[in-house]
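Ticket #4471: structure export looks truncated?
Reporter: QA, pipeline team
Priority: medium

Steps to reproduce: submit the single chain below to the structure queue and open the exported record.
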Amino acid sequence: MSILPSLSVYDLSIQVTVLFLVILTSLWLTRLVKQRLDKKGADQPFRNALPLSRRDFLRLFTPPLAFILTLATRLLMAPWLDTTVLALAQALLLSLAVVQFVFYVLRRILKPSTLLSSLEQIVAWLVWGIVALHLTGYLPSLMAALDSIGVTVGKNHISLYTTLLGLLTLSLTVLVALWGARSIETRFIERTTLQTNLKVALAKILRTVLLVVAILIALPVIGIDITVLSVFGGALGVGLGLGLQKIAANYVSGFTLLLDQSIRIGDMVTVGPNYGEIRQIATRYTVLRATDGSESIIPNDTLITSTVINHTLASRDNRISLPIQVAYDTDLEHARTVLLLAAKQDRVAAQPQPQVLIKGFGDNGIDLELAFWISDPEEGLGLLKSDIYWAIWATFKREGIQIPYPQRVVTLQNSG
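Actual output as written to the record:
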């Protein structure tokens, strides 16, 4: 039965005008409140609790405010005017407020995108359509028609209506779980003094647990017996044992890396031919950023089963060695002074002091080694080594210190 009776032109025009003024007033009040909050430094705790942009603030608070004003106006006008239009607008504004809040949560969880904006508009129209059908009395007929389209499997009747209801329930529970995990991660985990790896591991474990709980809550609501999961778990175990064992190994390895602290986010490591900084330890892979800006995607299982050189595990101080060869007739003390002078660069640590070592006597000259320490390996070594070699070359040329060419001594014997 429809709840929309026939309205006079007078009643309809009055309610439309009032509704238009209510929406304008709501927009004006919301903008005014946002401007006041932005100007007042005393409201900093409130602003930190609601890190909203101007657009999000208008989206979240305009519909509820318009709903409240419409409700108040309807109560005032009810004794002398038919307020059916205001009742319909009130329901639509409430549904809009719910949609805006849900998609604000989605924008906080997911990256904003064109797809998300389009989905928001589609969902808004669907919700408004359902509300309109409910208010006009056609919703029960539509639900019955959807429920008649389906099949019966055992004791369960699977229809188009139950399928849509199940997807909606599952989506809402997963959304609440992701939002709860994100909120706990932002407000508690990130503010603790734990190491970065432990924070990431706790966040991933929390998100996984909440998702599992959400699914376990949603399944009975939509009429699926949880005991069915035991069959699914057995099938999943067989799948992991056959074709998914590598993927499962990467997932387990990811949690192992986060918890055992052998490789941490920000460490400088060498994995095979790759050298760089650990930028991210994801569930399945680790991102290694080289000093040239390129990023390598390394499966977590590789970091567990292969040799990894961690240059910053115990300390960020790294010892760098530069080989130099000088001629045999070189004044080694003078060469040592020149090399130590060349090592006086901004990135070279003063302690421990740079050293010049004699590594051996080669075929063509004396093998020396300039050893020094740096504390910022993430800045790379190519430019630093180049600057030191440039300084050594310029000073050697100026001081007459020779870098020997390959030499061969040939002795001719008189056969007579």
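Status: closed, not a bug. The export was complete when the record was re-opened. Leaving a note from the reviewer for reference: The chain has a mean pLDDT of 76.
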